[in-house]
Amino acid sequence: MGKEKSKPASTWGKVWYFIWHDDSVWSWIVNIILAFLLIKFIVYPGLGFLLETEYPVVAVVSGSMEHDGSFEDWWDSTNCCTDRICAQTRSQGDFYIDTGIMKTDFLNFPYENGFNTGDIMVLQGPKKIRVGDVIVFSVPGQAEPIIHRVIKVRENEGKMSYSTKGDHNCVSSPFEQDISQERVLGKALQRIPFLGWLKIIFVKIIGFLTF
After folding, report:
1. Rounded to two decimals, what is the model's pTM?
2. In what order do the strands lie in the sheet with 120-124?
3. Are residues 28 and 91 located together in one domain of the fold?
4. Are residues 184 and 196 in the same domain?
5. Is the dihedral of CA 15, 21, 27, 32 positive or negative?
6. pLDDT tens across 175-201, in order?
């Protein structure tokens, strides 16, 4: 059997031993805290600097971009419009065609099959945003930003604005009809499935404990 590593005598040596070699519960707690601080104050800002956005990574916390079944199933699926919202029930495809987006256009969009609750989206700076891109934007009075697909791009006197819609949603909501460039936090660059559930579960636990 190997000889147990002896504890150092110096203060810094004891701290190092406690963090890296001690198997106590307190050592594990300190390691978790250090990992959180490292990610929040070094890794996250560094990634944001490289990708030119203050929000380089976001977790998808709603199902507004989910597709049910295959692309064809989703495109032909009956929209949840009712007489209160629109004149008649339409398919998802009808909505986009009315907006000027054909099926062949949509198939060439990034994330043409949407993405799911619990996914992580890596973002880049909000430059050269086009119809079909997926963007993250802030909503006044709302804590969590929204991640939806751009369905219209406008330019007025050199200023850009956008309209978006969640792929799963019936229509484009009022708060996303005219999104200024200043409200755009980033454009989706890469999807990482499932990893966002860590954040969702953590937030739910915190919410339960503080209720």
Report:
1. 0.74
2. 57-59, 120-124, 184-192, 134-137, 146-156, 159-165, 179-180
3. no
4. yes
5. positive
6. 999 999 999 999 999 999 877 666 656
